[in-house]
Amino acid sequence: MQPIVLMSDSEYNMYYERMKEYMAKYGHFYPKNIRESITQNFLSHPEILNYSNCYLNEIYEMTGVFDIIPNNPYDRFFKELTKRFNIDGNLLDVACGFYPAFASRLAKIKQSGTIDAIDPNVIEQDISGVNIIKRFFNEKFDLRNYDLIYGIQPCEATFSMIKAAGDFDKDLFILPCDCGKIVAGRSMVKLDSKVWLKFAEQLLKQSTPSNREYKIEYTNSFKQPIIYTRKRLREEDNMTFDRKTNMIFYKKLEDYMKKYRQYYSDYALDEIDSNFLNPYQNFLDSSDVLNQIYSYIGVFDLVEDNVYDLFIRLIKERTDINKNILEVGCGLYPALAVRMSKHQKSGSITAVDSSLLPVEIKGISLLKEVFNKKFDIKPYDLIYGLYPCEATLDMIESANENDKDLCILACDCCLTEDGETDTIEEWIEYVDKFINYSIPSNRTYTIENIKKVGVPLITTRKR
Questions:
Q1: Verdict on whether the full-model pTM lies above 0.85
Q2: Distance separating alpha carbons of residues 232 and 221, to the nearest angstrom
Q3: Best CA proximity match to 230, nearest among 171, 281, 282
């Protein structure tokens, strides 16, 4: 069968070999029919982007296939989850399957809290940041130590999750499967999907405490609805600012989008529509898309704890900004460069990004192009970037080759020249060697962990 994902033969062979290595080591834990399904349908399943086969999804995540598939099922589940809940607490992944793939993904990006993954079939592996519990989940499971209970197609455990979350007054988030199974006494009963949803709604109504709200909500991410319960927000809690200020910012957003909506991708537009002034989201956790808009319309003038002002403080504490500086990867709107210009007393600021909006900003030179190793950085004294992602290594190499100061607040994508590392710790080790290989003898460098945002700060400067 031909792979349905566009990739080269060498990439296909690489992922296929990874799958074979995993199955050679752990295949005996899987029932025969599942083993056959994985080996026969790997990279050929007609619905790779849907939750049609949870076992294949686990393998796709573990082998790295999902790293090259944007908007894959785990990406979409993560988006819907973080839109509604803070993940930096103690989490329980219910019915995680043979390999706790999503829990493993969360563990790499969580800044605090724990993750436990429970399933009677889970293979007991050493997975960084994930505690494995090999047993069935039922409504008597003790949830006192958890803040959020979630499940991706937890099948017959769904109703037990709803009941237990209600009893222990815990947040709950479920993407149900469409199997329609419920446990009735000692038997398993399969219901029509509509009937199953009615049962689920009835149980939610009975089990959800009065201080909580429950929702069965259809989204653009999945064909089946998501189910969640969370603490009710008072009207004043449901607004990031007071009513008048909120209305002002929504009006400013409306004016901004009338002017620039055409330049944003569907994914970015969904992020704006879903998370603008989201009371469940910390401003330090906001996306680049929202940060740029927040700065443009003035939200960050009222929010001291924002990533732009944090990064500017970090830069000023380590180097002089009153010189010719270049910002790499400024995004659609160069918000960081604009805020930086208010601190700079002399010198110049240039901002480069291939996706720049058609804007002109007094005192800032804007270059709509891709930054790579061929980009001429000789006119600049300092190169800096906030979450520059794939440009990070090129920035390091160019700065070293041209004997320039560098300051990067790195993102957590963990990209290397050959792909990506499994953890941020491994990536830091990789970058440390990468810098050390090319840095001139007259320069020194540091890699610091900035706990407030959970990512490393990379700086190079003259000794």
A1: no
A2: 24
A3: 171
Amino acid letter for position 354? S
Q: Which of 30-44, 74-88, 196-210, 419-433 has the lowest mean pLDDT?
A: 419-433
Mean pLDDT, residues 245-255: 94
| Contact assessment for residue 69 and residue 48, using Cβ atoms and an 8 Å cutoff | yes
Residue 90 exposed, middle or buried by CB count within 10 Å (0-12, 13-18, 19+): middle
Segment 401-447, tens digit of pLDDT: 999 999 999 987 777 777 776 677 888 899 999 999 999 999 999 99
Cβ–Cβ < 8 Å for 100, 130: yes
Cite the beta strand spans of 26-154 per DSSP E: 91-94, 115-118, 131-133, 148-152
Q: Please, are residues 83 and 44 in contact by the beta-carbon 8 Å criterion?
A: no
Please name the helix (run of DSSP H) or strand (run of DSSP E) that holds residue 244, with its range, or none: helix 243-260
| In 43-133, beta strands by DSSP E | 91-94, 115-118, 131-133
Q: pLDDT (tens digit, 9 = 90+) per residue, 229-247?
A: 998 765 545 557 888 998 9
- Residue among 414, 450, 451, 411 nearest 430 (CA): 414
